[in-house]
Please model this.
Amino acid sequence: MLLEVRDLRVEFQTRDGLIQAVNGVSYSVDAGETLAVLGESGSGKSVTAQAVMGILDSPPGRIAGGEVRFQGRDLLTLRAEERRRIRGEKIAMIFQDALSSLNPVLTVGYQLGEMFRVHRGADRKEAKARAIELMERVRIPAARERVNDYPHQFSGGMRQRIMIAMALALEPELIIADEPTTALDVTVQAQVMDLLAELQREFRMGLILITHDLGVVAGVADKIAVMYAGRIVENAPVHELYSRPAHPYTKGLLESIPRLDHKGGELRAIKGLPPNLARIPAGCPYHPRCPLARDVCREDPRPPLYEVGPRRSSACHFWKETVGE
Model:
């Protein structure tokens, strides 16, 4: 197993009290495998990724429990220097806002080359040559001429390709992509996702794709973890989740997006809002919005992840009704 997250818990101390942003999350990803982590904003997707990477803002955040095992080693027990060596060389992250992630006063070539200067001891000439190679690998046109351009001189899609190149620089074994297609138009989204999938096959990397867009992951992911209110509420292979969701929240997400085989049909929005993480309701956190909610859903303890099939689980007492059994 390349990465295994076990019962991860992350807390934030705020003016409103203690917020459990991640509450017992467990998932795994192997070499060459793509895991998509889905959920609305505030569900804990990005915070989980930051905890895995070791870039959580602390304070106010802190890891309250759990394990993050990369190739069998618990990253949470490593010293800061050891963690930094793994970050970038073994695990890399693509952030969602490329413009704010890149330094506006440094050329993209300098920023790409920095990976080789710091981690490989390359001189400026060699680092620049490697930067050009990376830009060509992610299909940036006229890379040799554009290596001295600044981030604002590139389009949104090209900036995201530069972020992908930066993540690939040291040929890591795992990449975490946090909303990599945010603010890009549909055509560019498809190009970026195709590029990620192609590079993953080439390097046989593990890929964790964090998104709220079900359409983005349909043709890329091998398996999906759906998060709600800091917990995983459903795990499933991608095709099974799309064809037979086993949690009402997942079903609601699927019914709220347009489909080619339902032309002219009405889109169903999920009623209500995600819960305030400082005041998560008793029982199942989704019950105030759930059409299947009954008395047992409103009472503690919260529903566990029931095994609903091979490599499938759902945190719903009434998962059989959701899948139509």
Summary: The longest helix spans residues 186-203. The mean pLDDT is 91. The longest strand covers residues 17-29. DSSP finds twelve helices and twelve strands in the chain.
